[in-house]
Specification:
Keywords: Membrane, Transmembrane, Transmembrane helix. With 166 residues, the protein is of the alpha+beta class. It has helices at residues 2-37, 80-85, 87-95, 113-133, and strands at 43-47, 53-57, 67-70, 101-107, 141-148, 160-165. The longest helix has 36 residues, at 2-37.
């Protein structure tokens, strides 16, 4: 008689724990979903040689870039024409006070990957500094981790920083 009650109790306990596990998974899923919809971006921080911290946002790129800034091979200094080209971005940020600007630096696969990533990061930092100098608050400028530009025959596409307002 007790064996039958123990078996029934085990079934009830198993079902109860299963329901609790489903509720916990549902709550965690809701939290992750609401975080991604609210625009909150999980970030990673990386220290650079200059002691300055670079914060990378893990946020999805939305739409086409508003601006592409192209660089010469091995050069990280912002081209002079890029500062003038940022005017539409600044106008869009002024019009949409809730919008953020997302910077994505690209590099190709030739050479050392860590050197290429550092160059792409420094190019994006140059664009970021230009935006900050133009009066854009730092919390509105997000950076993505440098990305390898795959394929394509245009080498310039591998040496660019994309600027998106989203």
């Amino acid at each position: 008689m007790f064996d039958q009650e123990d078996g029934e109790l085990n079934v009830v306990m198993g079902v109860l724990f299963g329901v609790i596990a489903l509720v916990i998974a549902f709550v965690i899923g809701l939290g992750v979903h609401s975080m991604s919809r609210s625009g909150a971006a999980p970030t990673t921080v990386e220290a650079s040689e200059g002691g300055m911290e670079v914060i990378y946002a893990e946020v999805e790129e939305i739409g086409e870039p508003m601006l592409k800034v192209y660089f010469e091979s091995g050069v990280t200094d912002l081209p002079a024409e890029a500062i003038e080209a940022l005017a539409p971005v600044l106008g869009e940020l002024e019009a949409r006070t809730d919008a953020l600007v997302l910077l994505s630096g690209f590099h190709d696969e030739t050479g050392a990957a860590d050197v290429n990533a550092e160059v792409a990061k420094n190019r994006a930092l140059g664009v970021r500094e230009a935006l900050l100098a133009a009066g854009v608050p730092a919390e509105r400028v997000l950076m993505r981790r440098p990305t390898v530009a795959l394929g394509g025959s245009d080498a310039d596409e591998a040496r660019r920083v994309e600027v998106r307002v989203q």
